Amino acid sequence: MTKIENIEKILKTVEIHERIVRKSTEIDNETKPYFLELSKFTKDCLSDESKIGKLNSYQIKSLEKELLIYWNETISLETEKFWTEILNEKLNIKRKEPLKFALDKNRFRNVEQGIEARKYWNELKKIKSINDKFSKTEIEKIEKIIAEDENKRIGILKKCLAKKVIPKSHYLKFGECMAYFTNCRLFNKYMTEKEVDELHEIWRNFKS
Predict the structure, then answer these.
(1) Rounded to 5°, angle at Cα 97 from 124 and 152
(2) Which of 83, 63, 62 is nearest to 73 (CA)?
(3) Residues 197, 194, 176, 79: what is their CA dihedral angle, to the nearest 10 degrees?
């Protein structure tokens, strides 16, 4: 691929990025301006002839990599829509697959991806791009990984609740579990409002 072809590919990617970000219901309003500013910066660098001449292949690749960070690291309906459009446009861009990582390692790379998988999986498993990529067995395995992730996290929270203390070695994991259950709105599934209040009190009173 020539330098000009590569630039054209990235500029088409920017168009898809902007279109989905502007209409997004998954990206919060505080984050959207950052993503739109990123696309503006990328377009400015790759549309100004005086700047293009000074860019080497590494710098162009860095612009592409920065633009794709969010779409490579997230699990959501809009992320699938982004990559489906990339595929439809026949843009030669290699995707990182958080769900394939989960299948390979039997876990999610981080709590953020675990949260996204738990929030969106019921919708994701019905869409064409997921069913084209994963077999029925793999889809069932992803569901199992999500369920096990949830079970491990409620286990940690209930253990801390029972002992009325957060072990120092579990403090970061405890915080991740609280974020997971808050974002996935799962507290009502497992705990009373009083127990949730007790968890927050234990968290506030933690001494390092």
Answers:
(1) 70
(2) 83
(3) -110
